[in-house]
């Protein structure tokens, strides 16, 4: 697919994830080791399936957030490594189940586990990783962290079900859609960030700040992901332009393009999303309508709004390398577009 | 299906679950209320799917075990109600995922959730219930109970994957099969029983006793379930004779019949289980081979062996109404056959 919708140049220096990667490097080494260890099992199929996804080159942004958030408040134990690993396992379990739910063939440019080992193994290995995640949290022994992460697990599943029920309904409002991504994406970012101050014994205000940072970073991250599916450098990220479209997914660019369109445009979107008329010609039309409605640039503007809230959430905190790295990650998530 | 394999009369008075039901009645009222409350969500599909299965008339044996085991050691708080509800949610989540994995159409004589709402909702509502289960455990605040239950969650999933990998392999030994049911069934019975003494602050010896009771009761329970699928009063329990056979499931009656058979018998089993030649005529043959090999009676004898271990596990404990009820449940699980 060569269609890339040109985006406004926001004239910002490109932000990087590198400061966060450097800051968390030693601890991430331990996280990566623990991931391999805890995805292990005498039942051979489990490490095979788990490692297929685990080794497929995700950025591991969520566990890095946990580690950075703990270091921000001077945490010196090693519970943060277990919590970060738990967070990544929760994420991996969600991806395994998502691929079954969405009937996806590809993730990050590789065949999904369900295409290789079947839906059965994807469901069950997801369950296993979730169980292992909870065991590690219990090992750490912080009931507050357990509360935050188990609540997130419920909310994520609730968000996925909510997404099912808005699926194929073009009358979905921006608020409806935000409720979905707040639950299915932002809740885990939020929990990943909040367990840092929790385990470090930081104040309630600090917990609140990190939770707000995580939530809003997660919203910005998901909105930019939605944009990447219709343009930007999607190809480089192992995504194909139009994957969401072909799966009939409602995302913010689609919501905006539908609501801003004329009767013909809306008829097109209903036919494409509600009736599944989503071949390559339809994708070309979709891209043209999205361009006409300026939906991608405005989705990015919305993402920037949540990015700004995330930034202000951290504003009162002392300037530390961790804070600087976490602030830069906000811009990095948004700048992935360019 | 009118085929019922006659079983030896063991000349035992029929044991009842009634003492356990009576003992736990007030607390089970609270469990049932909490089940409804915690299966609730603003996302409408969640209580719909959850209540479909929850209201389908399971015995709720596992939560009753938790309540009885807590009362056995004089527990007077109300954490046992939350733990019992967590145990039932873990069980319900497993059933929802199992039906997807096994592609089952019926459970307890009703359409499975996946047949009504699809695999997607079954996977996700299972995840939601698991999340709610962990939240309730965290609420109770016992790290030891959390450890036991989260370990069980991992083991159950591991057992389900193990079952996948032995599926369709007629060389599966009795030991292989026991490893599967030890993980997928007995682990939750074991955890359900052990969290009783944990929350009551009982001794390690008491915990060990209840864990052993739960494990062995679970093994006996599953083996009798396997027998019921080929005879006994399966129809009354909302099961159809031959469901396991039609799904190509390897259970102990099949393992025994295969190993005890001659070359022709073994060729039949391989064709039926490994190649899926499992029509009604094949079922008739299977029932005849199982009868010839005495596999059902011997599976019941195996179940009685585990029942005896469960009984001895409780032997050193003081005689209480809870102990009497839990002992009678062992016989009840086995006597379901008659």
UniProtKB/TrEMBL annotation, chains A, B:
It catalyses: 5 isopentenyl diphosphate + (2E,6E)-farnesyl diphosphate = all-trans-octaprenyl diphosphate + 5 diphosphate. Pfam families: polyprenyl_synt. This is Octaprenyl diphosphate synthase. Its cofactor is Mg(2+). GO terms for molecular function: all-trans-octaprenyl-diphosphate synthase activity; metal ion binding. InterPro entries: Isoprenoid_synthase_dom_sf, Polyprenyl_synt, Polyprenyl_synt_CS. SUPFAM superfamilies: Terpenoid synthases (SSF48576). GO terms for biological process: isoprenoid biosynthetic process. Keywords: Magnesium, Metal-binding, Transferase. Supplies octaprenyl diphosphate, the precursor for the side chain of the isoprenoid quinones ubiquinone and menaquinone. Its EC number is 2.5.1.90. Belongs to the FPP/GGPP synthase family. CDD domains: Trans_IPPS_HT. The lineage of its organism: Bacteria, Pseudomonadati, Pseudomonadota, Alphaproteobacteria, Hyphomicrobiales.
């Amino acid at each position: 697919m060569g269609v890339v919708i040109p985006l406004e140049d926001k004239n910002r220096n490109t932000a990087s994830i590198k400061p966060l990667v450097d800051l968390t490097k030693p601890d991430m080494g331990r996280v990566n080791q623990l991931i391999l260890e805890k995805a292990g099992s005498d039942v051979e199929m489990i490490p095979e399936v788990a490692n297929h996804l685990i080794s497929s080159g995700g950025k591991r942004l969520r566990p890095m957030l946990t580690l950075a958030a703990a270091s921000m408040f001077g945490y010196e134990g090693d519970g943060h490594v277990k919590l970060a690993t738990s967070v990544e396992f929760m994420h991996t379990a969600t991806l395994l189940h998502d691929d079954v739910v969405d009937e996806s063939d590809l993730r990050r440019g590789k065949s999904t586990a369900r295409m290789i080992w079947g839906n059965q193994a994807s469901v069950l290995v997801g369950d296993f990783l979730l169980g292992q995640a909870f065991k590690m949290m219990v090992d750490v022994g912080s009931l507050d962290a357990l509360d935050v992460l188990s609540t997130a697990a419920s909310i994520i599943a609730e968000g996925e079900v909510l997404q099912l029920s808005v699926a194929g309904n073009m009358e979905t409002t921006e608020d409806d859609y935000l409720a979905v991504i707040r639950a299915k994406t932002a809740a885990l970012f939020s929990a990943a960030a909040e367990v840092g101050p929790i385990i470090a014994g930081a104040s309630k205000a600090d917990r609140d700040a990190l939770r707000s940072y995580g939530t809003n970073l997660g919203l910005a991250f998901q909105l930019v992901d939605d944009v990447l599916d219709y343009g930007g450098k999607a190809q480089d990220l192992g995504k194909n332009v139009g994957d969401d479209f072909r799966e009939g997914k409602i995302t913010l660019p689609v919501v905006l393009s539908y609501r801003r369109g004329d009767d013909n445009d809306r008829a097109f979107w209903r036919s494409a999303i509600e009736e599944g008329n989503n071949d390559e010609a339809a994708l070309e039309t979709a891209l043209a309508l999205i361009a006409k409605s300026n939906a991608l640039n405005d989705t990015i503007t919305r993402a920037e709004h949540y990015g700004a809230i995330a930034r202000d959430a951290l504003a009162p905190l002392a300037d530390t390398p961790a804070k600087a790295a976490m602030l830069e990650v906000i811009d990095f998530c948004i700048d992935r577009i360019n």
